[in-house]
């Protein structure tokens, strides 16, 4: 009998998680019950559903000392890419949904984001700081093709000459080269492309609705050719599964045009730990124990250490070895240690419709 702990593979084809357990805030859990008829009703294949949300503000302020940005925007909640390792999965629990399959299939869009952004940037007390996009869920996931929320946000940022850093795995970003190219050349944007593995089969299992690795390398090539600086992000590094590819990924990304590189070891906060371990047992049962032993070695014996200063880097010998390999390969391949800061001095309040134009 199918349960929240295990959804039939036929129903979740093309999805990352294998379960849809009740989120941690709910008092009650749903349990399957045999009604005595002796057979299970046919259940439908899981489809993607999108609801609209109307937030009061769209810019989120961040205070974590582990991250380099003060402001971020999330055009969507949940992510159809379905990456099993995604650290953002637990955030779906705040919506009353499961970090498992709900995170991949029950999505939230913010269609009013461009209007809200324009209003916030136009406030007389607004001080420009770099805005990060793609830090919680991917703005270029498949639903963006029809919704175009990210496109609208970019158009507003371009009009205000406002700096923005973007992280994505989605090839849909190439649609916006007409904006990102000139902004990149002006020092107003750069893009981080996540390449976790060069193995197409592993990628399909681990990131079921993400473009294959070769296609992401082509993204780097096209963005770079358009004048938009690209950082390759070897994240997350899964010890015992993808860590042997560090140097090869960096070399391929350099050859495609990336100018900087970074890496973060696998993080398994809250529900992500059980989801990832279930995935390991299903897809790589012979490696599951080894992978988790290495993960725990990097997090003080636990599945995850959330402490600031450690959660992004890990601790111990294995984490140190990964950092040394990254640093050595990046130097050998000529990656920039630090990229120039994005420009804040170009910020310009565009004239309002019907408003007085400047004389100069």
Helix/strand order, N-terminal first? EEEEHEHEHHEHEHHEHEHHH
First-last Cα distance: 73 Å
Can you list the strand order of the major beta sheet? 2-3-6-7-8-9-10
Low-confidence stretches: none
CATH architecture: Alpha-Beta Horseshoe
- Number of helices in the DSSP assignment: 11
Q: Helix content range of the residues, please?
A: 25-40%
Q: How many E strands?
A: 10
Calculate the mean pLDDT score and round it.
91
Main pleated-sheet profile: 7 strands, mixed
Question: What do these coordinates show?
Answer:
The radius of gyration is 21 Å and the shape is globular. By secondary structure, it is α/β, with parallel strands linked by helices. The model has no long low-confidence stretch (mean pLDDT 91). 38% of the residues are buried. The protein has one domain: Alpha-Beta Horseshoe (pyruvate-formate lyase- activating enzyme), CATH 3.80.30.30. Helix 8 runs parallel beside helix 11. The termini are far apart. Helices cover 31% and strands 12% of the residues. The strands form two sheets. The chain has a seven-stranded mixed sheet, with helices on one face. The protein has a three-stranded mixed sheet with strand order 1-5-4.
């Amino acid at each position: 009998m199918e349960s929240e702990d295990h959804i039939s593979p036929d129903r979740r084809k093309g999805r990352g998680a294998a379960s849809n357990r009740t989120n941690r805030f709910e008092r009650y859990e749903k349990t399957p019950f045999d009604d005595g008829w002796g057979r299970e009703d046919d259940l439908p294949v899981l489809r993607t559903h999108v609801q609209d949300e109307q937030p009061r503000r769209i810019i989120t302020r961040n205070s974590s000392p582990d991250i380099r940005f003060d402001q971020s925007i999330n055009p969507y909640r949940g992510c159809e890419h379905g990456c099993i390792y995604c650290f953002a999965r637990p955030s779906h629990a705040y919506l009353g949904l499961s970090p498992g399959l709900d995170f991949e299939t029950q999505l939230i869009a913010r269609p009013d984001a461009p209007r809200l952004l324009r209003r916030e940037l136009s406030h007389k007390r607004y001080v420009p700081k770099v805005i990060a996009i793609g830090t919680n869920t991917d703005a270029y996931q498949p639903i963006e093709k029809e919704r175009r929320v990210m496109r609208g946000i970019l158009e507003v940022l371009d009009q205000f000459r406002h700096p923005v850093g973007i992280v994505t795995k989605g090839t849909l970003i190439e649609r916006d080269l007409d904006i990102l190219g000139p902004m990149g050349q002006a020092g107003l944007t750069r893009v981080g492309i996540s390449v976790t593995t060069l193995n197409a089969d592993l990628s399909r299992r681990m990131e079921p609705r993400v473009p294959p690795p070769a296609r992401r390398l082509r993204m780097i090539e096209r963005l770079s050719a358009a004048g938009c600086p690209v950082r390759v992000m070897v994240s997350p590094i899964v010890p015992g599964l993808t860590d042997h590819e560090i140097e090869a990924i960096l070399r391929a990304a350099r050859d495609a045009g990336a100018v900087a590189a970074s890496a973060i070891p696998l993080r398994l906060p809250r529900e992500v730990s059980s989801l990832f371990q279930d995935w390991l047992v299903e897809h790589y049962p012979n490696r599951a124990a080894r992978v988790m032993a290495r993960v725990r070695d990097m997090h003080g014996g636990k599945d995850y250490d959330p402490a600031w200063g450690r959660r992004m880097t890990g601790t111990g010998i294995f984490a140190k070895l990964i950092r040394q390999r990254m640093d050595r390969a990046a130097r050998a391949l000529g990656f920039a240690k630090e990229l120039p800061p994005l420009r804040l001095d170009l910020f310009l309040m565009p004239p309002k419709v019907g408003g007085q134009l400047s004389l100069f």
